Amino acid sequence: MSNTVSDASPGEATALLSRSNDPTANTHRPRILARSAPVLIALIALAVLYFTKTPPSWFDSGVLPQDPREAADVILSKAPVIDGHIDLAWLVRLEFGNNVTAIDLDKPTLGQVDVPRLRAGHVGGFFWSVYVPCPESNGEDPGKDFLKATSSVRDALEQIDISHQLIRRHSDTFQLALNSRDVTDAMRRGKVAALLGLEGGHHLGNSLGALRQFAALGVRYLTLTHFCHNVFADSCGILKAPKPLHHGLSPFGETLVQELNRLGVLVDLSHTSDATALAALNVSRAPVIWSHSGARAVCDVSRNVPDEVLQHVGTGPGQRDAVVMVNFVPEYVSADQEKADLKAVVDHIEHIASVIGRKHVGLGSDFDGMDTTTNGIEDVSDFPALIAELYSRGWNADELGGLASGNFLRVFAAAEDVAREMAREGVLPAQDLYEKRVDIASK
Fold it and tell me: What pLDDT does residue 63 have?
């Protein structure tokens, strides 16, 4: 044990303080208490920091284990992972017909996500993707002007319903989160924060009114496109960008982005074309996200973000704060599938960080939305292995805590701030209608 508090560990310091407060330990108690007062203040401050928000100095003071995997577990115990995109609800639709009684998340599932693996991976929250494929993939034809009725709105509502059912069914694990405070509250309580993200503007049925109702049901990000264009914006396609329709955002799409800002719903730029992403970065008042995308400089497919778009992310003039949450789909990790492994995923993270800084990177796995997984990070239990790899490459604990969840929470809270500002300014719900609709007259 150390002889002075200044060079004692927290546990040793506590022991010293307890001994000094023991009336039988020393007859010169007043002098000891006087000397102990600064110690008491320091220990109280340490306890507050330890049990609320661990600062970089806590990690940098030699407390972390040298072993990268052990260090990763310590870091993630303080800053659990928030995954930007998990397709659990789609798996339940695809494999079980949305029958919640047919799947038990407390036991191993067919996919990459269940409660035991979430716990093993130190997952503190994730976005449940509200998703069904583009109408064309379902054998439906929305028409060149997107005016023909499809099942997208109905199916999106079903996916929200199944998400809510599963969250309630496993309420001992999940806690529905509607804002950044809910997320941190869930994590403090040892729960997994459950957020909803609507993946693709085709789910809106060309309607801002539908968007507002989805927000009322808990949706907290909208991916502007999926693999298809829609009335709002152009998609990046799958591996190669298709012929553009709007050359970015349509005028109606610009209104959509502004309405998302007003609602406090995050603008998600995964799946969008480069022109759409640049336009949205320019139009949005609030920070944006890429919920599950990689770096095109590492794997040259249209689904990944190019450097010329990344360079518009930041807090400088002409930039917008954002977080790019890196995904693990093998086709987007490496052009050579045999090289699609954990280290390649980390290469994406490091490249994005080298362009825009480590405060703008997060994690968005796409688990349960991929047919094959990336070697070394094959389900939600493998997050510590990823953190360990980055730790071995020189990332410090504060940076890794940001990657795991802090960077996303910053952006989420800032988007909520913008929504409050717009409310104070008296910004009203947008009344715009899709200009080509003929079923209702615009007034």
Answer: 77
Segments in 97-193 forming alpha helices (H): 115-120, 152-169, 180-188
Which whole number is the average pLDDT over 87-111? Answer: 97
Which of 338, 309, 321 is closest to 261 using CA atoms? Answer: 321
Token pair, residue 386, equals: 């990823």
Q: Which of 122, 164, 246, 292 is an active site residue?
A: 292
Which pLDDT tens digit goes with each residue over 327-384? 999 999 999 999 999 999 999 999 999 999 999 999 999 999 999 999 999 999 999 9
For tokens 């490249």, name the residue: 351
Q: Is 85 a catalytic residue?
A: yes
Q: Name the catalytic one among 164, 203, 246, 271.
A: 271
Structure tokens belonging to residue 250? 């349509």
Gap between the Cα atoms of 433 and 206, Å rounded: 8
246 is catalytic: no
Catalytic residue among 83, 87, 274, 399: 87
Question: What 8-state DSSP symbol labels residue 295?
Answer: B
Task: Count CA atoms closer than 13 A to 332's CA, side-chain side.
Answer: 28
Confidence tier at 71 by pLDDT (50, 70, 90):
very high
Residue 226 is among the residues annotated as catalytic for this protein: yes
pLDDT of 400-415, one tens digit each? 999 999 999 999 999 9
